[in-house]
Specification:
Number of helices: 6
CATH architecture: 3-Layer(aba) Sandwich
CATH superfamily: Vaccinia Virus protein VP39
Number of strands: 9
CATH class: Alpha Beta
CATH topology: Rossmann fold
Order of helices and strands: EHEHEHHEHEEEHEE
Distance between the termini: 26 Å
Mean pLDDT: 85
Radius of gyration: 16 Å
Strand order of the largest sheet: 3-2-4-5-9-8
Strand content: 25-35%
Oligomer: single chain
Largest sheet: 6 strands, mixed
Helix content: 25-40%
Length: about 220
């Protein structure tokens, strides 16, 4: 449902249902960096208009403006906030519980099949235990259209006990403003082989490794 911008509302132009709120005491540090994965994502939608894009990082005015200025429609979901509301702080509750999984999917990914032409997943999948992760990827596979692209980020250092989580704001088709909001315990860390297995029902998976040891992943439906 379309909502105009007002006090407490998401940025105008978005279809957000639960905007992310950072809640960090000191101002978080923001840096700008190039993103080959983002460039690949926009290469897919370049020259098209009227597409429907899903952003799992929550509603930010910068992303809303960038996507809508390209002539597309943007839906936003505060995925990590819903994860915390459903499974507790740090996602500590049982993520294999079928009832909780169903509740989470109804809150965060309750869309008709073949609804989206692209998904900006960002870094949210690292915090899901196997049962919940499998259910989320299965739902993503249902709500995206064939040949659409999804962009996801995964930390590549398998020794980390906690990883930073970020807010990603699109500056240009190949440039991101990245703000660290804190750190979280990853449910699991992935290598290329495990990511290929995770997205095995999709057409293809492509990897880009960054200097921050982030693996940028383009998944083609």
């Amino acid at each position: 449902m379309w909502r105009g911008q007002g006090a407490g509302d998401p940025p105008k132009g978005s279809l957000a249902r639960s905007p992310f709120s950072g809640g960090q005491k000191s101002p978080p540090e923001t840096r700008t960096r190039p993103s080959r994965g983002l460039d690949e994502f926009f290469s897919y939608i370049r020259g098209q208009s009227g597409l429907t894009i899903l952003d799992l990082g929550g509603a930010t005015q910068q992303n809303v403006s960038f996507i809508t200025n390209l002539g597309h429609r943007l839906y936003s979901e505060s995925f990590l906030q819903t994860l915390q509301e459903t499974f507790g702080e740090e996602g500590s509750a049982d993520q294999s519980n079928p009832g909780r999984i169903d509740s989470f999917l109804r809150q965060s990914l309750n869309y008709e099949p073949l609804h989206f032409d692209g998904v900006l997943i960002w870094d949210v999948l690292e915090y899901l235990d196997p049962a919940l992760l499998s259910a989320v990827v299965e739902r993503l596979n249902k709500i995206v259209r064939p040949k659409s692209y999804m962009l996801a980020f995964f930390h590549s250092d398998a020794k980390l006990e906690a990883v930073p989580y970020y807010t990603f704001r699109i500056q240009d088709v190949n440039l991101l403003h990245v703000t660290q909001q804190g750190s979280r315990r990853p449910a699991q860390l992935f290598n290329n082989r495990s990511l290929e297995k995770l997205f095995g029902k999709f057409e293809s998976v492509k990897f880009f490794l960054t200097r921050e040891r982030l693996r940028e992943v383009i998944v083609k439906a």
